[in-house]
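Hey,
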Amino acid sequence: MKKTLIWLVILAVLGFSMMLMVKIPALGLAEAGFCGRCHAMDEQVSTYLHSPHVNAAICGDCHDPHGLVTGSLFAAYTGTRDVYRVVTDTTPAEIRATELSRKVLQNNCMRCHGDIMADIGDTSHDRGSNCFHCHQEIVHEK
């Protein structure tokens, strides 16, 4: 029993360490070059590469929470889900953000553009619109 527990702890530590690797910039796991390896993301990567954000942000800057642990967990979850969809050929014809992803996107819009939004505030409060509701085509065409 003790040996099993030790192995479970070792596997948990290794798994957690591997999740944190997503946040190591040198690996490029949150960049268009990595995200674009999947054919399902061709349109998203192409529109991003022709957007004003190409020189200011990578995919993970907008699509992942910025905390080390929360960002790693989120990226591991969404990455695993996306790989599963590709392997099982269940990728949706139209890729849409989930409610959780919309919250992450909105938080990241506010994180980068909060100075501009200081007078207006977070537009998503009180049943308002998310920033990307009106500004989606700046990075990805609808």
